[in-house]
Amino acid sequence: MKFEAVTIKDIAKALGISTSTVSRALRDSYEISPETKQLVLDCAEKLNYRPNPIALSLKEKRSRSIGVVVCEIANSFFSQIINGIESISYDRGYNVIISQSHESYEREVMDLRYLASRSVDGLLISVSTETNDISHLKALHEKGLPIVFFDRITEEINTHSVIVDNFKGAYEATEHLVQNGYKRIAAIANSEFLSITTERLAGYREALLSNGLPPDDAYIKHCFYGGMIFSEIEEAVNRLFTLKQKPDAIVTMADKLTSGCLKTLKRRGLTVPDDIALVGFSNSDIAELISPPLTVVRQPAYEIGRDATELLLQLIESKRPVKQFEKRTLTPELQVRESSFPKK
């Protein structure tokens, strides 16, 4: 059976009045008496009537919806960002349409086509690892679609963005390991094309230099898909252990990289931190429950989503063209646990 939504015709038929009277009553028109308005509202509630969002969007020239594109909802970092987005948007009367790129440029393009076809009022996006060409985003932006970037951003479009202080997070993680006696500190990062990778590796290198340890590119490994494919993490870790001077600590620079690295180390029969220390970027609540509890750089993901939504709604609801844009940088927190205890 095909679902058919209740319409104003159904209300009019139930009350024995015209559809135009029902329509005006629902709009709270002065032409309709308070008694009739109440009858219409009571009937609408009884029949579970809801206004047609498509019809409303045509009338108001606004869909009251926001598009969101992330690489993966199952990633705890992005799921927390989405919670932050929804905490603002629903209170302000906007629905949220979420799409996943799965780190694919083609999927990202398809997601944006779909969202554009739904006439979303604005877009929140963290670009995929494969996205080097942003012409699809530029085209939408030039047509007037408000866009705000978060986490993985691009400087090629002049708009708001919300990021974490990636340099600070990686610097503190690396310096913490140095201060605990580790000297051969490796780094496993996302694709080198991503903004987060550039910033985090810069912090990692600067922490080594500041503590008299020259960075060695042999200790830096990239996982193009950021750990979504376990085999690429496993290969990166295994390649580190082919070096003549094997690492005594690893900094992993994303959620999936952290969990995948720990899994690989355990498969190799290595004990953390006795054989090798580990510090990772992670927003997973499991980090403190596993053995050993993980030292992590925790990002304010909920706040990222909230702030990005506030900035997007400013663009959507502004009566005048916005010409001044903000790059908002939030502060991560290093949470120290057993996986980085002082070297024995």
Automatic annotation (TrEMBL):
<dbReference type="InterPro" id="IPR010982">
    <property type="entry name" value="Lambda_DNA-bd_dom_sf"/>
</dbReference>
<keyword id="KW-0238">DNA-binding</keyword>
<feature type="domain" description="HTH lacI-type">
    <location>
        <begin position="6"/>
        <end position="60"/>
    </location>
</feature>
<dbReference type="GO" id="GO:0003700">
    <property type="term" value="F:DNA-binding transcription factor activity"/>
</dbReference>
<dbReference type="GO" id="GO:0000976">
    <property type="term" value="F:transcription cis-regulatory region binding"/>
</dbReference>
<dbReference type="InterPro" id="IPR028082">
    <property type="entry name" value="Peripla_BP_I"/>
</dbReference>
<dbReference type="InterPro" id="IPR001761">
    <property type="entry name" value="Peripla_BP/Lac1_sug-bd_dom"/>
</dbReference>
<protein>
    <submittedName>
        <fullName>LacI family transcriptional regulator</fullName>
    </submittedName>
</protein>
<keyword id="KW-0805">Transcription regulation</keyword>
<dbReference type="InterPro" id="IPR000843">
    <property type="entry name" value="HTH_LacI"/>
</dbReference>
<dbReference type="Pfam" id="PF00356">
    <property type="entry name" value="LacI"/>
</dbReference>
<keyword id="KW-0804">Transcription</keyword>
<dbReference type="Pfam" id="PF00532">
    <property type="entry name" value="Peripla_BP_1"/>
</dbReference>
